[in-house]
Specification:
The chain is of the alpha+beta class. It has one domain: uncharacterized conserved protein from methanopyrus kandleri domain like (uncharacterized conserved protein from methanopyrus kandleri fold like), CATH 3.30.1860. The longest helix has 9 residues.
């Protein structure tokens, strides 16, 4: 998967996307996610699950796309199944720490 951390004045944004999804456009008529136009947002370093876990230990918000990336958030109890949006059967989740 790809992992990119964005440091902003409002906090740390963690973006992760399963490698095979980058460059695709997901559109099921109800939800739309353009991973081609927003490639730079997600395309950082190639990462393993442990890298994403480390990043998710310190985040303000997170945007995760794909089975691998979303499963890490579920495993860490940062989200539950009801929080997941599926676009063309691809899981997508946004997390915020308040």
């Amino acid at each position: 998967m790809y992992l990119k951390i964005h440091e902003t004045r409002n906090g740390r944004i963690v973006a992760a996307c399963d490698s095979e999804l980058l460059g695709r456009i997901l559109d099921d008529g109800k939800a739309y996610l353009d991973l081609k136009a927003h490639r730079e947002f997600y395309e950082g370093k190639q990462a393993k699950e442990d890298d994403l876990k480390e990043a998710l230990a310190r985040f303000t918000s997170a945007n995760l796309v794909g089975k691998k990336a979303v499963s890490v958030a579920l495993e860490m109890d940062l989200a539950d199944e009801e929080s997941i949006i599926y676009i063309n059967k691809v899981p997508h989740i946004q997390l915020y720490k308040i």
